[in-house]
Each structure stands twice: as structure tokens, then as C-alpha cells.
Amino acid sequence: MTFLRRISTGRLLALCAGVVAVGIGTGALALATTGGGPKPPTKPLPAAIHDALAAPPVDGISARIQFTNQLIDSSSVQGSDPLLTGASGRLWASRDGKLRLELQSDGGAGDTQIVIDGKRFLLYSADTNTAYRGTLPQSGARTRSFKQHGTPSIDQIRRELTRLALHLSLSGATPTDIAGRPAYGVRIAPKHDGGLLGNAQLAWDAVHGTPLRAAVYAKGDSSPVLELRVTDISFGAVPDSVFAISPPPGTKVTDISPPSGHPAGEQRHAPVTGLSRVGKRVNFQVTAPRSLVGLPRGKVHLIEAGKENGALVTYGDGLGGIAVVELPTSGESQSRGQSGASGSLSELNLPKISINGVSGEELDTALGTAIHFKRRGVEYTVAGSVPPTVAEDAARGL
């Protein structure tokens, strides 16, 4: 987690948007499409999902896409970073797990490239001449299980949907038409504790199951906050040269990789939780009141970040809850009572906010609010899918 101290807020948001885009694009690797056609016939949701999972893959995908990002008001964004402002672009995927997503800046500032090869990823922004690369989390056990047991049956899918319906509202498989392709769409919404999240929508090709659209909506908003939509698609093998993207000389490159796996025979340590246990593992006094803005304190988790352990304290349940991250300051000249946000904020114009006499910064998005400030050698990040006033009251309650 130490890279989070160095990364700018704009780049962090761009990485989050990139993860969404990579996640959507990665789904296209296992599922695939063909030509054009009318809306498909009506079909129950379990059957539509089964047919998508059972569809054979194609050799490769080349597509035109449209990416929408309305998380932040445009007045807060400097420049024309496609990941922060939205853009059109292209997507390529190969049968062996390679993916390239190219977002083309409308302002002439340069494209943003996201490339993965199944194990590693690269995010490069020509606008800021920065790149982030690292390894992707592996889920080998789940992949092996799918290969061993094959496509789940319609009855298995129906039982799983019934379980999900305890917490989520699921629409049926709605016949639609996207990029000239017959498709099915589904709407998913939290039944309770959804915070500012309204719903998410996913549409996939009716013939071979390729995801054609994914969108996230804020509560009460009819327009998507985040959307990745295919506008044109074709199929066939994609040359390896398409995925051979490297940052040009002079690019500032940051490596981001999860901790390496444990050696064979070495046991994993159980997570450290509880205020008392966590308090003994950090070099500062953890601030964790029993309640915050009327929400009861949940769990206190130890954040292991090398030699600088921190704490994660949660309040409330579901997406409507609040998370507080507390970390020791990283050595800057911080005197008692002084504060400021770490990292460069050159890509965002964030409003300053006073938190009990110290200065912090507030990031207000359509899906939630984050506040960052430093106080007496500790930096705090308060975040939740809540309005700014709620997040501000929570920060002042610490």
C-alpha cells in the first residue's frame, strides 16, 4: 500500500476507472460474439446466462468502444485525461488472454492505454507521461473449478440467482440490440444499504455471450455515471504485435504488485482484527469511536504496509457504510496541528475543507465522498457512498 502515498488523486481515480474497464474487457476474453441481427427472443434469465457461459469462444475480438465517466464534475478536472473525462476508443482481445484498451483523448493530449496479458497489466497515460504496471491477482482455484466442473446447469444458476435475490433486485433478461448485435440486458440494484449507488446494468451478445455494455448509475439519475459500451465489433485472430505496448523513454513508471505468494509449507498469518489487537501493532493511537454519524463501529482491521502498519475501521453495513483508513505520516515535515494531502493533485482541483482546525481535501463524486487530512502524525482517509455533508461530519467526529 505504500504506493498509495505517492500516487496522485487523479491517477488513483484513473486506476479505479481502468480497473472497471479492464474487468469489463476481461470478460470478453472468455465470451465471444459474431455478426449482426435483430433483438433476440424472450428467454428466462437463468437460461440466458447459461447459454452465454456455454457459448464457444472466438479467435479474437476487435471493437470500437465508448467510455463514459461522470464521477467528477468537469470543473474539477484539469486537462483531458480520457480515464477521468470519458472518451471513445478501441478494444482488442485474443483467445489466449491478452487484452488492449485504447482510449483516445478528444483534446489532443494523447491516448490512454490499458494492456493485460492474463498475468500482468500496464496503464499508460500520454497526457501525464506516467505509467503503472504490475501483476494481476490470480484466482487459480476458481479457474480450475470451472474447468473441472464445466458450465453450471440452468438449475444451478437459478438457485444462485435466488440466493442473490435476498440482497439484490434482479430484472429478467431483457431483449435488446447493441452495436447491431442481438443482446440480453439485466439490471441489478441493491435492496438496502446501497448508499448513493442506484443500479448496475450489463448486456451481452445473445449468440455467444460477449459483454457489449456495462454501466453504473447513481441513485435517482437516469444517465450512467460510468459506462463502457461497444459501438462496433468484429471477430478474428489479433496479431501479437497489437499487444506489444511499452511506455516510451522518459515515462515515469510506477510498479504496483500485490504481495508475492507464500513459499510452499509457509502458513499464512490470520488477519489481525479488533481494536486492542490492532492498536498493539501500530505506532500511533488508533481513533475509533464506538459510533460515527449514527453508524455503529464494525470491525477494526490491521493494514500491513511494510514497516508502516495502519488501521481500517468500518462503520455501518453495506454500501451505505463509512470506512476510515489511518496510517502514520510518511516522513514529511509535519508539525503538530498541521496537515495537508499527500501526493500531487495536479490533475484535480479539490476543494479545501477544515477538519477540527486542520486543513484537508474533499473529493465529491456521484457515487460517494472521500476526505483526506493529517493530524498529529497520522493521515486519515474517510470514504463512503454518502453525501459530502455526511462524510464531513464523520471526519469531524474522529
Give a verbal description of the structure.
This protein is an alpha+beta fold and 398 residues long. It has 2 domains: 3-255, Clam (outer membrane lipoprotein receptor (LolB), chain A), CATH 2.50.20.10; 275-396, Phosphorylase Kinase, domain 1 (2-Layer Sandwich). It contains 8 helices and 21 strands. A hairpin with a 2-residue loop joins strand 19 (358-365) and strand 20 (368-375). Helix 3 (45-54) packs across helix 6 (154-164).
Question: What is the distance, rounded to the nearest whole angstrom, between the alpha carbons of the first and last residues?
Answer: 23 Å
Assign the structural class, choosing from mainly alpha, mainly beta, alpha/beta, alpha+beta, or little secondary structure.
alpha+beta
Q: How would a crystallographer describe the biggest sheet?
A: 13 strands, mixed
Please, what is the oligomeric state?
Answer: single chain
CATH topology of the largest domain: outer membrane lipoprotein receptor (LolB), chain A
**CATH C-level category of the largest domain:** Mainly Beta
